[in-house]
Amino acid sequence: MKKFWIYLFLIVGGLIFAYPFLWMISASFKPEIEISHVGLWSSNFTLNSYKAVVQKIPIWRALFNSLFVSSCVTLSVIFFGSIVGYALSRLRFFGRDF
Question: Domain spans of the chain?
Fold first, then answer.
C-alpha cells in the first residue's frame, strides 16, 4: 500500500511536469485565435505556424549551422581526448594504479 502512494505521487507529479510541454505542442497546431484557450485539443487542426516558421525564419540555415558547429566540436573532442588518453596511458603519475 505504501508503494501505491509513492507511485501515485510520481504519476501525478509527472503529469503536472509534462502538461506545459503537451500544451506547447498542441498550441503549435492551433490557429492563433484558439491559442489562449486552456484546453489541449482543438477542433481546427492547422500547420500554419510551422509554415510561417519555415517561410519567415531561415530555419534551414540555422539547422546547418548547428550541425556544422556540433560536428566540429565532436570531432575536436574525439581528437584531443584520444591524444590525452594515450598520454595518460603512457605516463607514470601518482594514483595511476588506484
Answer: 1-54, 58-98
Say if CB 28 and CB 50 are below 8 A apart.
Answer: yes
- Grid cell in block for residue 36: 489562449
Q: Is the pTM of this model over 0.85?
A: no
Which of 55, 29, 54 is closest to 42 using CA atoms? 29
Distance CA 47, CA 55 (A): 12
Q: Are the C-beta atoms of residues 49 and 35 closer than 8 Å to each other? A: no
Element (H, E) at 73: helix 59-90
49-72 confidence digits (pLDDT tens):
888 888 898 988 999 999 999 999
Mutual orientation of helices 59-90 and 48-56 as an angle, nearest 10°? 80
Q: How far is Cα 71 from Cα 19, in angstroms, rounded to an integer? A: 33
